[in-house]
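Progress against Task 2.4 (sequence-to-structure conversion) is shown through the following example record, which the project officer requested during the mid-term review.
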Amino acid sequence: MIQIFTTGGTIDKVYFDANSQFEVGTSLLPELLAESNIHDGYRVQELMRKDSLEMTDADRQAVLEAVSASECDRILITHGTDTMPDTAAALAKLEGKTIVLIGAMQPARMRRTDALFNIGFAWSAVQLLAPGVYIAMNGEVFEAGSVRKNLKAQRFERT
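Structure tokens generated for the chain above:
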């Protein structure tokens, strides 16, 4: 069984015409998994709906506590990309679990999103990787503590 926690971020953003802005909405993750023909072997729990720039140390502590309390040893976490490395670093002290953080550069609701690919890639990664904390984005896996987001290039890279 794979435990999936959702925290918000761009992957779950919705455009609100009335406000002319994007806001974090209900996660499309169950729908995206079904579209990928993944129908069982997981459970989803929403932890929060936040842009990662709004996440606090208390939020990261809540993620850490949820992951620690999970009986599953394989964990996926959807997360905003801006502070994903910070949350990965906060989780790095956990042992005995394979934890993969994923997100998207474009909301899952948009036609040209990388969300579906990233979810499929992370689904495979969490089943194949050794215990540890990782970020899986755009076909690459990075270990916690050795990755940063390159804002200009809109990609993750090793540090």
